[in-house]
Amino acid sequence: MIHRGRLQRLSGSLVMSSFMSMALSGVFSLLEFGISWTWLQAWGQSILIALPIAFSLDMVFGDKLRFLSGKLADKAASVWP
């Protein structure tokens, strides 16, 4: 059985990496091809490439980056009350 914290980390990484890879590959391929069948085809292929890369990066660096963003938010909150 998978520990709840580990399952939450995996599902969080999957949701975030899916969203970001779909959004960014969609935007950049749209800028390249415009709205067309070619765009949809390129977008689909881009998602298949981007999703495993984004998921892997989030699993490796996600905790450290969330910790860093928390520290930055704390620092900003102390400067701008």
Report on this model:
This protein has 81 residues and is an all-alpha fold. It is built from 2 helices and no strands. Helix 1 crosses helix 2. The longest helix has 43 residues. The chain starts with a helix and ends with a helix. The mean pLDDT is 91.
Relevant terms:
single chain; 81 residues; mainly alpha; 2 helices; 90% helix; flat
Give the tally of β-strands: 0
Distance between the termini: 44 Å
Q: What is the quaternary state of this protein? A: single chain
Would you tell me the overall average pLDDT? 91
Strand percentage, roughly? under 5%
* Radius of gyration based on Cα positions: 17 Å
SSE pattern: HH
Shape: flat
Low-confidence stretches: none
Classify the helix fraction into a percent range.
over 70%
Largest sheet: none
Which class do the helix and strand fractions yield?
mainly alpha
What is the count of helical runs? 2
List the helices and strands and how they pair.
Layout (H helix, E strand, L loop, with lengths): L3 H30 L3 H43 L2
Helix pairs in contact: 1-2
Concise synopsis of the structure shown:
The protein has 81 residues and is mainly α. Helix content is 90%, strand content 0%. The longest helix is centred in the C-terminal third of the chain and has 43 residues, at 37-79.
